[in-house]
TrEMBL record:
<comment type="pathway">
    <text>Cofactor biosynthesis; thiamine diphosphate biosynthesis.</text>
</comment>
<dbReference type="InterPro" id="IPR026285">
    <property type="entry name" value="TenA_E"/>
</dbReference>
<dbReference type="InterPro" id="IPR050967">
    <property type="entry name" value="Thiamine_Salvage_TenA"/>
</dbReference>
<comment type="function">
    <text>Catalyzes an amino-pyrimidine hydrolysis reaction at the C5' of the pyrimidine moiety of thiamine compounds, a reaction that is part of a thiamine salvage pathway. Thus, catalyzes the conversion of 4-amino-5-aminomethyl-2-methylpyrimidine to 4-amino-5-hydroxymethyl-2-methylpyrimidine (HMP).</text>
</comment>
<dbReference type="InterPro" id="IPR016084">
    <property type="entry name" value="Haem_Oase-like_multi-hlx"/>
</dbReference>
<keyword id="KW-0784">Thiamine biosynthesis</keyword>
<protein>
    <recommendedName>
        <fullName>Aminopyrimidine aminohydrolase</fullName>
        <ecNumber>3.5.99.2</ecNumber>
    </recommendedName>
</protein>
<keyword id="KW-0378">Hydrolase</keyword>
<dbReference type="Pfam" id="PF03070">
    <property type="entry name" value="TENA_THI-4"/>
</dbReference>
<dbReference type="InterPro" id="IPR004305">
    <property type="entry name" value="Thiaminase-2/PQQC"/>
</dbReference>
<dbReference type="InterPro" id="IPR027574">
    <property type="entry name" value="Thiaminase_II"/>
</dbReference>
<feature type="domain" description="Thiaminase-2/PQQC">
    <location>
        <begin position="11"/>
        <end position="217"/>
    </location>
</feature>
<comment type="similarity">
    <text>Belongs to the TenA family.</text>
</comment>
Length: 220
């Protein structure tokens, strides 16, 4: 099986996630400021647990060469992505102290604990499948939004966010992630017990991504 099999098996949920009302409002620039600010703060808190998940991935590797992949991701997150996120939040009037002091919303708790539970109790492949909807979904959103007639570039406060995920760097990251995950799953049959388990994990993580958008809209 491969990543395409996971997306196809969950196509309805996947489309609900990648073409969510939150995403469409980012595209046309009508998303309320309060919804986006809440999302930015919760995404920062999510990144903390994302880092912990990659640390778990390193722990689960059985060779130095295998450790390199999650180590690279963890180093990039700690040294670059987090600081970029903090700087972007500051542009929206959210200080680093604000980011540290605000509590996790229920959707953030549900999503991150799902991933960490899989990371602690499951296999390395299962952990990567749980992480996959985030990077792969945002890449699809980044590729999809600029092509839509409703997406506005002029006077759109969210165009920098769209451009970041539409950019070559993030798009290539998703290509690399897909290639690596395909390699990990190549010996697994989609209709096997393990294949069905991976599909459930992917489905649940995609549901959590939808809930992440919803909690932002609920804070309007």
């Amino acid at each position: 099986m491969n990543v395409s099999d996971l997306i196809t098996a969950n196509q309805s949920l996947w489309q609900e996630y990648t073409q969510h009302r939150f995403v469409r409002q980012l595209g046309d620039g009508t998303l309320p400021d309060s919804a986006f600010r809440h999302y930015l703060i919760q995404d920062y808190l999510f990144l903390k647990h994302f880092a912990r998940a990659y640390a778990l991935a390193i722990y689960k590797c059985d060779s130095f060469s295998a450790m390199q992949r999650p180590l690279t991701a963890l180093t990039g997150l700690l040294e670059h992505e987090t600081s970029l996120h903090v700087a972007y939040c500051q542009e929206w009037g959210i200080s680093e102290q604000d980011l540290e002091n605000i509590e996790e919303d229920s959707g953030t708790v549900a999503y991150t604990r799902l991933v960490l539970d899989i990371g602690q109790s499951g296999s390395l492949t299962e952990l990567y499948v749980a992480l996959a909807p985030c990077a792969l979904g945002y890449a699809e959103i980044g590729a999809w939004l600029p092509k839509q007639s409703f997406t506005a570039r002029a006077n759109n406060p969210y165009i920098a966010w769209i451009d970041m995920y539409a950019g070559e760097t993030f798009q290539q990251l998703a290509v690399d992630e897909t290639r690596s995950l395909d390699e990990m799953m190549k010996e697994i049959s989609a209709d096997s017990q393990q294949g069905r388990k991976l599909n459930r994990i992917f489905r649940d993580a995609t549901r959590m991504e939808i809930a992440f958008w919803e909690q932002g809209l609920n804070k309007q």
